[in-house]
Design brief:
With 153 residues, this protein is an alpha+beta fold. The protein is built from 6 helices and 3 strands; from the N terminus they run ααββααβαα. A 3-stranded mixed sheet has the order 1-2-3. Helix 1 packs across helix 2 and helix 5 runs antiparallel to helix 6. The chain starts with 10 loop residues before the first helix and ends in a 9-residue tail after the last helix.
Length: 153
């Protein structure tokens, strides 16, 4: 008796059919649609700085990347609210809230370590020979072992 594996299914199909994920997938699609509608009413320069966070109970919460854009959008708040209220998805919109949340900055990634020449490695090895502390001597020897021979052209 051999077991046959289940046929492979597309990830999107799995998201649509699994009950816990189905609701999450539906909410993500709803927020994406609301984002598109909000962006259609914003100035092109403001679109990348403003994202829909939630829409419930007549309140639309927009996340803005910095205080500058939040101020600019607050000046346009009434116009934006009127335009959005005319859309079916935003029926019952009573207020727009802005929350400033700077984008997450990428953590510092260490760059490539500098290459250690054979000459520098020899100097480190020579220094290690005169060291009596065994831990320091081992550390210097490990450091010297990272030397790379000169590239041949």
């Amino acid at each position: 008796m051999s077991l046959r594996p289940l046929p492979a299914r597309a990830p999107a199909a799995l998201l649509r059919e699994a009950k816990p994920l189905k609701a999450l997938f539906g909410e993500a699609r709803r927020l994406d649609r609301l984002q598109q509608l909000v962006e259609s009413q914003l100035q092109p320069a403001a679109r990348e700085h403003c994202h829909v966070a939630s829409w419930r109970g007549g309140s639309l919460l927009l996340i803005v990347t910095d205080g500058h854009w939040a101020t600019r959008l607050r000046y346009q708040q009434r116009r934006l609210q009127r335009q959005l209220q005319n859309m079916e998805e935003f029926t019952g919109l009573s207020r727009i809230l802005f929350k400033v949340q700077p984008p997450e900055t990428p953590r510092h990634k260490p760059g490539p370590s500098p290459e250690l020449s054979m000459r520098a490695a020899g100097n480190i090895q020579e220094t290690a020979r005169g060291i009596t502390d065994p831990k320091l001597k081992a550390a210097l020897e490990r450091l010297a072992s990272h030397a790379k021979p000169a590239a041949e052209d």
